[in-house]
Amino acid sequence: MLGTGLIGLFYTRTLHGRRGRDRVHVVYSRTAERAEAFAHENGVPNASTDLEQAIAHPETDVVVVGLPNDVHEQAIELCARHGKAILCTKPLARNADEAKRILDTVEAAGLFGGYLEDLAYTPKTLKAVQAVHAGQIGDVTWARSRETHPGPHSAWFWDRRQAGGGAIVDLGCHCIEIVRGFMGKGNRPLEVFAWIDTLVHPIEAEDNAVCLIRFESGALGQFEVSWTFRGGMDLRDEVAGTEGTIWTNHFLRTGFEMFSSGESGGYVAEKAETTSGWLFPVGDELSELGYVDMFDDMFGALDEGRAPRETFYDGYVVNAVMDACYASGASGKWEPVRIADWRGGTTERIARGRRERDGKTVIKEEQMPDGRRKLILKDEASGDFSDVVAGV
Amino acid sequence: MLGTGLIGLFYTRTLHGRRGRDRVHVVYSRTAERAEAFAHENGVPNASTDLEQAIAHPETDVVVVGLPNDVHEQAIELCARHGKAILCTKPLARNADEAKRILDTVEAAGLFGGYLEDLAYTPKTLKAVQAVHAGQIGDVTWARSRETHPGPHSAWFWDRRQAGGGAIVDLGCHCIEIVRGFMGKGNRPLEVFAWIDTLVHPIEAEDNAVCLIRFESGALGQFEVSWTFRGGMDLRDEVAGTEGTIWTNHFLRTGFEMFSSGESGGYVAEKAETTSGWLFPVGDELSELGYVDMFDDMFGALDEGRAPRETFYDGYVVNAVMDACYASGASGKWEPVRIADWRGGTTERIARGRRERDGKTVIKEEQMPDGRRKLILKDEASGDFSDVVAGV
Amino acid sequence: MLGTGLIGLFYTRTLHGRRGRDRVHVVYSRTAERAEAFAHENGVPNASTDLEQAIAHPETDVVVVGLPNDVHEQAIELCARHGKAILCTKPLARNADEAKRILDTVEAAGLFGGYLEDLAYTPKTLKAVQAVHAGQIGDVTWARSRETHPGPHSAWFWDRRQAGGGAIVDLGCHCIEIVRGFMGKGNRPLEVFAWIDTLVHPIEAEDNAVCLIRFESGALGQFEVSWTFRGGMDLRDEVAGTEGTIWTNHFLRTGFEMFSSGESGGYVAEKAETTSGWLFPVGDELSELGYVDMFDDMFGALDEGRAPRETFYDGYVVNAVMDACYASGASGKWEPVRIADWRGGTTERIARGRRERDGKTVIKEEQMPDGRRKLILKDEASGDFSDVVAGV
Amino acid sequence: MLGTGLIGLFYTRTLHGRRGRDRVHVVYSRTAERAEAFAHENGVPNASTDLEQAIAHPETDVVVVGLPNDVHEQAIELCARHGKAILCTKPLARNADEAKRILDTVEAAGLFGGYLEDLAYTPKTLKAVQAVHAGQIGDVTWARSRETHPGPHSAWFWDRRQAGGGAIVDLGCHCIEIVRGFMGKGNRPLEVFAWIDTLVHPIEAEDNAVCLIRFESGALGQFEVSWTFRGGMDLRDEVAGTEGTIWTNHFLRTGFEMFSSGESGGYVAEKAETTSGWLFPVGDELSELGYVDMFDDMFGALDEGRAPRETFYDGYVVNAVMDACYASGASGKWEPVRIADWRGGTTERIARGRRERDGKTVIKEEQMPDGRRKLILKDEASGDFSDVVAGV
To answer: Is any Cβ of chain C less than 8 angstroms from the Cβ of B274?
Structure first.
């Protein structure tokens, strides 16, 4: 386990939680104090401040990279040198070039590279993606992923040099992969438009962004990220299809509501703003935010010799989309997503149905408040539209 | 009452509902059959198929225009000629040029022009706007308005020639005015970006669009419209501010939930898709969708000689924003909103706060899961960010 | 308008609100100061501290009784003496004997007696009752009405001598009438069981109660009232039927959600506990809590010479049910509801369906997770139950 | 694993799911066909139709009893004879006498007895109970647990002889233990009142019941069970405390909402009624319904030599409460809960606070709509209550 920040803690608690088989054997941190405290609190036998030593440790089968974005490449190179399987936190890198080098390094070394995109693994997302791919909502026309909170927990996130960007790099990477999951991973993200601004915080990186992604099928992906949201952590996804709709809410409205006058304190949930008034805790954050299913897939894939759901290639695509977002933020227009080796094939455009009646195109058929049925027809020759009201 | 479509019916039921003082005296429709049926069903004493006659009728003090978009200008010119006060349904016109001519005609004649934008008047919206302007959520940074359903009720909506466009003209006009309400009407909409597509229906007009509006304060307005949504009518607004958040839901989740096995039928709500399974009716559509408060404001303004909340000038601004949406949809980049005579003054950019501690900029202060407090500081000289963890 | 408390204010604002025809001409309060302040603030031309004078005032057509419970009888007797139509707030009286005397007085005088049970008139309740009576959820088997908040606004509510009881009299009267609406008013409440306790406040009256009402159809009504609820005002109803379910929420979750860091104050909603954190305002309290539709029905009934939805007889039945609650609280067993002249006829017991297959009773038919269909059958001769799994 | 019904399947999937250490080695069913099919589908190495053989199997360390209620005692006696640790599904027995014999048998044999009450282990319930015990909602005054659906999956549930009862035994056992969790397990259930009826199904067992439980602290537990609910599976809990409120929803409203026009099928969730229209799936049923945390606690307790959260003694208390429910259903009055050896100690009554001001008892302090503060005071000598309105 490389890194002892919040993400390292969540990863370790997930691995050690419940009746799991998998254990953290070595933990690395830049400072001895944090490495040892973390090891002690989480029952990890070895602590180290030497990155290579931690990676090369004989007890280490798999390296989990939970470090700041600017250190991913170095850590993964060391993993490749020592032939260790790698699980890397999101985003894979600060930009697509860096991500591509990481991808090439790991593929050249023939190593396992799992991309730890937890929100692609929440139980709701997994089931929703399954429903979409089973056709339950028809062709996807639009997907929205929203991830906002009042700002990240560690200093390096706020430093554009270390992180590679601001709210897009921190939160948008989740959204992009959630949206790709609904669109189908073979559905190529063609171009991107982004509004990017720094409205509230005294930083250079963006604290708010809204980005649109045009996919090859014609469908639109949309994501909204913010480091200035008030009220907790807002994680919501919406999918529209030709035959249905899906809404998932991962945090603020999950069927757990509590009011407290505030006579007592205590930790409520990640990024909750208050400990009194109406509160919206999450039952089991590690499970509901996807950590449990993510590691299950990763270690299962390792054991079975198959690729996990989220690979380093996916991480590279995410970085390519984010690069296009920043390009669009600067140019004010759609910017192409530059992916060096697209592996997803091609996707046909959403088919527009056309039904006829009496030689005219049926535009709509519906029930009126008074019970009558109304038909809206189009005469393709004249271009005229007409209402035809039928009896009850 | 000009027009006997769904909107004319809603207007008339609102005016005649409850203990109201105001009555519809004349109803106009293109066909005698519909005019008479409408008059009979709604207790209207006079029915006419002659537009000018209906307007000029001696019992007519106020003309309510509930006609297709392409007939607004003609009807309003007739009103001006006969010196009648005018309430016109949304949108005011098919484009900004037409809207400007209408505005000029009415202002030149010195007549009352009320813009019937019902969704700016829903009780939730009124209270939310009041909360925003009272400062309860600080400076608004972002507002989203979403209006989607499976497509409109009358043929002319689908005909781009008559309507002036598709889902943007039908639904976006609501969203723009809702967003302007939250932003403050003096906050100028500077430029617009739009994704526009026809994904499902066999028509030329757009059936899906997502549009972004940059306001002078730096805040972003965002709206999503669709004629292909499945599941009913989705009317939701979200506002983010530096000190708070507002979410309103006008239709599908309003605290009224019903499951029916479907043994019995009956009208559930406007644009509901089914009459069995889980249904989400609205208590009183006319009140909750703003019709009651809208006419209260309009007739109150007439009586008191003041301007209503929503004027023809507002209608013109909405058309100008929509024109910019279509321009952006074609150009693929931000397009300026061209408003001939901006009456709203100027708005300052959202202020970015900056707090110091030990000579450094405080980026964030937060509570850790273990109860400790963490401070994130920035050294403005070096540009470095650092974490400082304080005791419990 | 007799009374200048919160209820008098709500009534007056409703009557004067929007484009209404009806006006308050005289207001009565025990103190001149309050009467005059109220008259001034609400545009009422006459203020009085003389109850009989206010009632007998020549401008008074209809008397609205918004006084403490112990003064209803006296006020209504004065109305009867002066031949005025009467609208009386809930509950009608402190107990069934007092209610019966009031009812007899008004009926003997041949006067209009409207029972101002606002929560029977909320738009959601009206539509839900309509759906129930249209058969959309089949036979009602159970209805729950819950009304809880942190305690009433005026001193007299807390005084059992003046109010006639505690939370049951204050809140249960609403619940009973809501439940009766769903059950059908002809469905006789036969007996009642109640748990009653004073858990938190230093008073003699109950601050918490849960009561069950057995109706003639076999259905169960259930209500929960509390003066110790934390988090605002919780008004929810649930109805279960053989073919469906209805849930209504009138206050805390109505599709209007707001987070405020609390930098600014302001009134949020009746009985809200805080002005920061997550808040749940109601769009338009007067409309959503039923006041508008209630007065519409009352004045409409007066104009049309018909009975309103809620009459003094209904108020008497409510008092009879509450008396049975107190009797049961004391005896710890079911207590009969004693209604002197039941006017509702008789209601048959909910019919239990029975379907046969292969000579056995079909108990259930369902789909298994794996897609197969399972039938549960009962052999009436042996009393044995068996599973029969059919193919997919 | 004894039993191959739905519960046996859920248990086995939980144990085999994710990266667990624990495996099912032997499965027992009455018919060889089902035993073998289950073993095959779930990767269980041994299948048996001989109960004792399955229990005595050398690979069996722990026996999981997932059999009909009338076979629990026999199975557990066999476990005791063979000295195996036992995990028994809920309810422990058909009545308290049977439960007491089971408890005595296991305790006499000195064996581990874990009571598989999954809903006491849902992540939301665990966190809510923790919040309650941390004092975040003050003293609990009331708790409601509701569990309703359209009826159980297997024939034996419907047979009162095998099950010991109807909806109370099937569903109420969950509710009782959820309520006890919130009240504190040391808080003795003193007496019970129950309404019990068979309204819809052609069976002898009850298909609907509402039960009240008086605890020693004065708090009221309340549960509602039904086999006639329409709309899916309704699992909701509510807790009221002197300082707060908790609402949990385990099934129909958990932040996962889907509309499908129904063009495609597929299993949505346990006891969902439809596969089209608005659907409310659960992300991960096994985790969100408590199975994962339950087995984690059970096997953890076994490994660590401690008692699990839910023991056979708890199961016995649940049966004692249910016996009192049936007694009360017959007698129509409160019936005592007869527990032979209460191990929970005593609990004090909820304390009623009392604050003074100017020699009077403060009943309430609140903010008026106009911003003023109102104090309600009681003069203990005269018993009079008065309003005192203070300035803004």
So the answer is: no
Name every chain B residue with its beta carbon within 8 A of the beta carbon of A229: 240, 245
Question: How far apart, in whole angstroms, are the C-alpha atoms of residue A218 and residue A348?
Answer: 9
Which residues of chain A neighbour D295 with C-beta distances below 8 Å? 19
Strands D256-260 and A244-249: antiparallel
Q: Give the residue from C251, C260, C263, C276 with the most B CB atoms within 10 Å of its CB, the best one to mutate.
A: C260
Of all residues in chain C, the one with the smallest CA distance to A274 is C277
Question: What CA–CA distance (Å, rounded) separates B226 from B170?
Answer: 10
Residue type, A225: V
ipTM of this predicted structure: 0.94
C residues 147-186 closer than 8 Å to A (CB): none
Hey, what are D192's tokens? 């019970």
Q: What chain C residue is nearest to B293 in terms of C-alpha separation?
A: C18
Per CB-CB distance under 8 Å, the chain C contacts of B136 are 258, 260, 263-264, 266
Half-sphere exposure in the Cβ direction for C359 (13 Å, CA): 5
Write the single-letter amino acid at C90. Answer: K
Is D21 part of the contact surface with chain A (CB cutoff 8 Å)? Answer: yes
Amino acid at site C145: S
Q: Note which residues in 39-98 of chain D have CB less than 8 A from chain A.
A: none
Q: Are D214 and C390 in contact (CB under 8 A)?
A: no
Greatest extent of chain A over all pairs of C-alpha atoms, in Å: 81
Return d(Cα C124, Cα C288) in angstroms, integer: 8
Alpha helices in chain A (DSSP H): 6-16, 32-42, 51-56, 72-82, 96-108, 123-133, 155-158, 160-163, 167, 173-183, 285-288, 291-304, 312-331
With beta carbons under 8 A apart, name residues in chain A contacting C261: 230, 273
Query: Any bridge partners for residue C301, and if so which?
Result: none
8 A C-beta contact, residue A280 and residue D124: no
Q: Which two tokens stand for residue D331?
A: 């007698």
The answer to whether the Cβ–Cβ distance between D363 and C141 falls below 8 Å is no
Does C127 lie at the interface with B, CB-CB under 8 angstroms? Answer: yes
Residues in a beta bridge with D225: D147, D209
CA distance C277 to chain A (A): 6
Say which DSSP state C255 is in: S
| Residue A282: strand, helix, or coil | coil
- List chain D pLDDT tens, one digit each, 392 residues: 999 988 999 999 999 988 888 999 999 999 999 999 999 999 999 999 999 999 999 999 999 999 999 999 999 999 999 999 999 999 999 999 999 999 999 999 999 999 999 999 999 999 999 999 999 999 999 999 999 999 998 999 999 999 999 999 999 999 999 999 999 999 999 999 999 999 999 999 999 999 999 999 999 999 999 999 999 999 999 999 999 999 999 999 999 999 998 865 554 555 566 678 999 999 999 999 999 999 999 999 999 999 999 999 999 999 999 999 999 999 999 999 999 999 999 999 998 878 899 899 999 888 776 777 889 999 999 999 999 987 64
Residues in CB range of C145: below 8 A, 6 or more apart: C174, C175, C176, C178, C179, C221, C222, C223, C224, C236, C237
Taking the alpha carbons at both ends of chain A, their separation in whole angstroms is 68
Strands (E), chain B: 26-28, 46-48, 62-65, 85-89, 113-116, 140-148, 189-197, 208-215, 220-226, 234-241, 244-249, 256-260, 277-279, 335-336, 355-357, 360-367, 373-379, 384-390
- In sequence order, which residues have a C-beta less than 8 Å from that of residue A280 and are 6 or more positions away? A232, A251, A252, A253, A254, A256, A257, A258, A269, A272, C278
Q: Kindly report the nearest CA distance between residue C18 and chain B, in angstroms.
A: 5
B293 touches chain C (CB under 8 A): yes
The reply to whether the predicted model has a pTM over 0.90 is yes
